[in-house]
Amino acid sequence: SNPAEGKAATLFADPVELADRRVVMLNRARGNQLAIYSPTTKKMSLLAVNFGTAKPASELVAVEDKVVLGLDSGQLLMLNLNNGAMAGAPYQPAMEADKKVQWNTPLYLADSQSLIVASDLQKLVRLSVGADLRFLNEVTLENRLVGPMVALGEQICAVESTRGGDVVQFFDQTSLNKGTSLQLPGRRVAGP
What we know:
By secondary structure, the protein is mainly β. The chain contains no helices and 15 strands.
């Protein structure tokens, strides 16, 4: 039996708060729809976005009054929440045709107006956030980063999955050079 009874399913999840306190959620069931809640007006609106054949492949991240989202086509784009259009030029890494990409949740660093992104392409990339997402620098990773990244002072902390187990790895926020690391006693576990 179909619990949605022939209607499109709705699963809004993983809310992010914008600088103006609005909250945005992605419809995980349909991927091309956002819900935007305004605590000022106490109203929620739905916004349709056009990703073509691509599907969301990361969590949303708030960047001032916009959101950034990675797509399985490899594009990382910033969305204007007034009309659902791309805000400026997206970031597109070099990759094989028809390859699907899975992005880690991007990390926005408000002080430097930059975005740190990683994906299963095994690159750690720093982008400038302005009118466009502009490439600044990148490093190649020996192993894939798993889970979210977090800023700690001038460092970025992430979990790197290696053959010998998972490692908490630190990177410089600007150069993205590897810093110290800490071997975990097992594998990172997330989710239910």
